[in-house]
Amino acid sequence: MTEQKDVQFTIDGQSVRAKPGETVLSVARRHGIDIPALCHHESVSAYGACRLCVVEVFWGKRSKLVTSCIYTPYENDRVETNNERVRRTRRMILELLLARCPKVEVIRDLAREYGVDEPRFRTNGAAREGKAPPEPTRCILCGLCVRVCGEVVGQHAISYANRGMERVITTPFADQAEECVGCGACVFVCPTDALHYEDIDGQRIMKELKTTLPLLKCRVCGRPFATEKQVARIREGLNLPDELAETCPSCRGSEFRGIMEQTLGLVQSTTSQQD
Amino acid sequence: MRQHKIETREHLAEVRDSARRALLDGKPKVLVGMATCGLATGAQEVFDALCDEVRKSKLDVRIVETGCNGGCFLEPVVDVVLPGQARITYAHVEPSDAPSLIESTGDGKVYEKLAIGRIDAEPFLLEDLRKNYRRGKLAPDVKKVPPYSRVPFFRGQMHIAMRNCGFIDPSSVEEYIAKGGYAAAAKALTEMTPEQIIDEIKTSGLRGRGGGGFSTGRKWDTCRNAHVEPKYVICNADEGDPGAYMDRSIIEGDPHSIIEGMIIGSYAIGAHMGYIYVREEYPLAVKRVRLALRQAEEFGFLGKNIFGSGHDFTVRINRGAGAFVCGESTALMASLEGRVGEPRAKYIHTVESGLWSRPSCLNNVETWNNVPVVIARGAQWFSGIGTEGSKGTKVFSLVGKVKHVGLVEVPMGLTLRQVIEDIGGGIPDGGAFKAVQTGGPSGGCIPAEYLDTPVDFDRLTELGSMMGSGGMIVMDNHTCMVDIARYFLAFLKDESCGKCVPCREGTARMLDILTDICEGRGQPGDIELLGDLAAVMVDGSLCALGGSAPNPVLTTLKYFSAEYRAHIEERRCPAKVCRALITHKINPEKCTGCTLCANICPMKAISGEKKEPHEIDESKCIRCGLCVDSCRFEAIEVSEGMGQE
User: Fold this and answer.
1) What values do phi and psi take at A245, rounded to 5?
2) What does pLDDT average to over chain A?
3) Given A49, A100, A165, which is nearest B500 (Cβ)?
4) Contact B502/A166, CB-based, under 8 Å?
5) Alpha-carbon gap, residue A172 to B575, rounded angstroms
6) Which H or E run includes B430?
7) ipTM of this complex prediction, to 2 decimal places
8) Which of A96, A141, A164 sits opposite B509 (nearest CB)?
9) Among residues A36, B194, B408, B529, which is most buried (max CB within 10 A)?
């Protein structure tokens, strides 16, 4: 393998350098250039599904739209992030997304930025068949929840089912997910507020994912603070002593400082082992 | 008896010679076309009846299962080799024909009732050899049967990919060897360096037959030069276009040709593992290729140290579950890995990082099948066939409103008109040609004014269509082009994997608009909206499925925009297809009051006294057309437009 060097290229006329393996999106953001993206998050692998981050790359006379979240530039590439071709594509994608999710603020705002107030598409499929229109979904199938669950949490509790317009994010057999620990990472990462959880009566209810998990009560204050499964998973991964694992963050006061320091040292050594 | 492995070219030549003696044993031979197309029309029953008859008559006649020679409109097809005379092709053979057919065969005579053509020599394409069946003079009854060169469907065809289809028993490796099979692999592995092979393939001008039309030699070269090990070769047999079945027929009729191509490719690229990704909906193809792999292993064409060259190569079969998108290379590889068949961005090509992120060379069935021919006959010969930019032949599945439905293999550069009118026999039932859809659902519709366009990768692309894998759907004047675009979009919407927004949402919205137009709800601005949406789908989709999905709409908009406008602005369907935009009326002059239509109408929309002209109540009529079909007096007239405004 040849030694990998920085790549010199231009974004919107500005000469920039990409580190080996760095994407156009990452370089652009480092230079304060705004590129919209809904299916991208730095904590998980790139997916290239929303297509909002498209930019146009020129090599000599040829050019092509690429997704900047995946494309790693070549030497002397000329990238334009906001020309008419790019804007036209983003505008139509936002129009399509708005027709799918008319109630999602982040899409409404982005669409307005690109000059779309209302989609031209008639979403009358149900009316045509004489059915009541279904409650529009908030999910744009960006897959961040699936990737965060698999790649960050390591549980692979959710995935996609079906294809095309029937595609949904779901748990195995659309039932209580055995692998789900109820950590809520998917809810946190969702860009369109399509996933939720609620803690009621000692239970964490993940409505969209059809999963309910018992919460663990803090040993000190007695308030439920995390699901039993999540605590078990963390304890298993980190070898935490019971009294620390089963105490809520706000109660982990001075009396546990000693244990915490000890454990943090442990955390660091575990992490470096994994590296 | 266990087969001794064939380790040298000399040994292969010996096996070939004895197999060839058995193939041309001078005895009468009956070949029944038993690919899926034959079986669907009753070839199994014909085969059984023929076997029964031979048993009863105690004649020394061999009955062989073979593949399809392409004439699917002639099925069930039976070919008979009359010793010392010729090979006669019989069409539309019924089990009841078996006694007479066997009797005349036993007598060395032609069964004239069903004979449609004769072949005078057994071709051995790989060796540029033809062995005459004839010894001495042709019998008068044989002479009366026209040679293939005078049968319109076969004249003008050139069988390279289909060289063995209809000639050999696909379950016999010996018959494949008899035809010169595996000699190209032996030559490549023992006499040529990988670089020489790749040069030969490059010089031949062979381009991928699966749709993309990328130079096969260049693909192999990049894969060979990739630094990572191991490397893989893959055969894409996930043929999913509606109405296209070239690959199925080749696998069913000549499975070893693909394996031989893959052996040569694996050696050239430096791969030791190969996969054939074939759809589970092709059970016969799966069965044939599975048997072929086992035979190739027994003969030592697969496994360790093939032909003593030191090259090891194994092939496995993977059965696809029938997702159209899995024909896309990255989705296919994801599926091979056991993941959901979904494409990914190809900024790093699969030849560098494909299956399990290893360099992977994926070619289509027909491409692999062509490889042994290039090696055996040489790049020079191969590149002499075809056009400047497209070399060799291409198999098309010619279907739709055309007389001769079947697989047609022609040199590149023949015009669409030659394929459709000369070979295909033109439009049946006195209809007029309207358009031909090439390249499957994501191809485009080409109108009559471009019928003289040569069939060539680049020329079809210029017209907004594509070669694709070779589907060719012919449409006549009774076809509504908006309805056709709607049909293809419905297919593509169902087959979109749903990963990227332009394809998932775009195909669905496009279908919505087209459905509205067909059902009389078209609005001003719809044509512009279709155009805007199409442009972004082409530009912004993740894979070729979404990128080419608008082609049916774009080409019909380009060539048949008047038809769209008639639907939207005048609420009429000029082809009289879209039910919401046509009216059925009974012509009182012609109606005899026979009441037949009234009885057939499922909506009870037709009323009238016996022997008096009837009437259709338009508010009840669903325009199913049953009355039109039932009327013996052509009294029911279909007109464009919605009738009651």
Assistant:
1) -60, -35
2) 89
3) A49
4) no
5) 48
6) none
7) 0.90
8) A96
9) B408
